[in-house]
Amino acid sequence: MDTIYAVKYDDCIKESDFPIDYSMHSKEVKDHVDWSIKKVNESVNRFGESMNSTLKNLNTVDAHEFIHQTFQKAKSAFTDNAISDIQKHYQCEIMRICYDSDRSLNGNTVGRL
Fold first, then answer.
1. Could you identify which of 26, 32, 94, 106 might form a hypothetical disulfide with 74, taking C-beta atoms 3.0 to 4.6 angstroms apart as the criterion?
2. Residue 94 falls within a domain, yes or no?
3. What is the domain extent for residue 53?
4. Cut 0.85: pTM above it
């Protein structure tokens, strides 16, 4: 039997929700590894751990809303022309974490309402 992926929410984050130049910038920065990128990646890892901890303490609806708000903040920051490439990298990674968290939350069959 084929399994059908059923979503809980209609407004889940999709790849099309990312800024247009997200993938180009994300690949560009990952190809250029230096000390500052490593420091940002450490910060991103801490953010991811903090987000996971926060999501565990929220019900499904609040977690979903939190993920979407965080994604929108990162997307807004990413599209700000005044930030540096390293800051853009950080925002790219935050959006990726939100995307992955949203998919994970949506894929759970048992909600915490």
1. 94
2. yes
3. 19-24+34-107
4. no
